[in-house]
Design brief:
mainly beta; Immunoglobulin-like; 6-stranded mixed beta sheet; 4-stranded antiparallel beta sheet; 2 helices
């Protein structure tokens, strides 16, 4: 399970002509997901593929608001963000990386990647979307865009692996680092008020967040169809407490909306 092709080198022909090569990421060359995400192949850490070398890289993942240029902690559904992956290690001669983003509740693809920057490419491994290096970077900075998933997706985690290399054409002496970044879903008033759909829900822990565009009733059932709660609510945002570790069904009925049922699991 070598990553000797994970970063390949193109040195000037006047120095070493035989080493001229096209640099591709591990998804491109091996069709492998080594991001460290659930279900991925084992990352090529120092103890597996790459010898414990002189490098101990620092790998950071940032999701940046394009309007403020600030890193975010919670995403707004459907919004496009700047992704910035940074690998740094004093003395390294080149860098590579691979990353993905998954919805925490089911490990499915979270949103989508687009517009890869210099030396960055988009790939697919067994249906999982991947962003990775397309060429060795000498700065260790890789950029792309990420379109956040739809409303109700919940927390999202980015998983990534990085490599700092010494250009000896072998796996010896390199350095590996993995990193994760988890973002919550922004369910603030600005997002909820924009939904204009009385039946839109967001489940978080032991609560269901519901936005009503007009006064109505919210009914809560258990998996057996037994009515647990029925109450009237004014228009606006409401947090509905749910029984823990129970599959529940929420029914919302207003003058213009009826028979809309959404399912979710409330966790303790």
């Amino acid at each position: 399970m070598q990553w000797t092709r994970w970063i390949r080198w193109s040195l000037p022909a006047v120095i070493i002509p035989a080493l001229m090569a096209h640099h591709n990421g591990v998804a491109e060359e091996q069709d492998r997901d080594r991001t460290g995400a659930p279900g991925s192949d084992a990352p090529c850490s120092n103890t597996l593929c790459h010898d414990d070398g002189e490098f101990d890289p620092v790998f950071t993942i940032e999701v940046i608001d394009m309007n403020t240029d600030l890193a975010i902690a919670d995403y707004i559904p459907g919004t496009t963000y700047q992704l910035k992956f940074t690998v740094s290690a004093p003395g390294a001669l080149g860098y590579g990386f691979q990353a993905t983003a998954l919805i925490d509740s089911d490990d499915s693809n979270a949103g989508q990647f687009q517009n890869p920057g210099s030396k960055t490419q988009l790939e697919n491994v067994d249906g999982r979307h991947i962003v990775e290096h397309s060429n060795t970077s000498f700065t260790g900075v890789f950029l792309a865009e990420w379109v956040a998933p739809e409303t109700g997706s919940g927390p999202v985690t980015f998983y990534g692996s990085s490599l700092a290399a010494n250009a000896n054409q072998e796996s010896s002496g390199d350095g590996y680092s993995g990193s994760t970044l988890t973002l919550g879903e922004d369910i603030g008033d600005a997002v909820l008020n924009a939904r204009a759909n009385a039946t839109r829900l967001y489940f978080e822990g032991t609560q269901a967040w519901v936005y009503l565009s007009e006064p109505g009733e919210i009914w809560l059932y258990n998996i057996h169809g037994q009515l647990l709660q029925r109450a009237s609510y004014a228009s606006g945002k409401h947090a509905i407490d749910l029984p823990g570790n129970t599959l529940v069904m929420v029914h919302v009925e207003t003058a213009s909306t009826s028979q809309q049922i959404w399912k979710g699991i409330a966790l303790q």
